[in-house]
Amino acid sequence: MTGDETNRVLYIITCAAGPAPGVGTLIDLARAEGWRVHLIATPSAVAFLDLDAIEARLGGPVFSEYRRPDEVKRQPPADAAVVAPGTYNTINKWAAGIADNYALGTLAELTGQGVPIALLPCVNDNLAANRVYARSLDELREAGVRVLRSPRQAGEGGPLLDGFPWQSALDAVR
Question: What number does CATH give the domain 3-67+77-157?
Answer without folding.
Answer: 3.40.50.1950
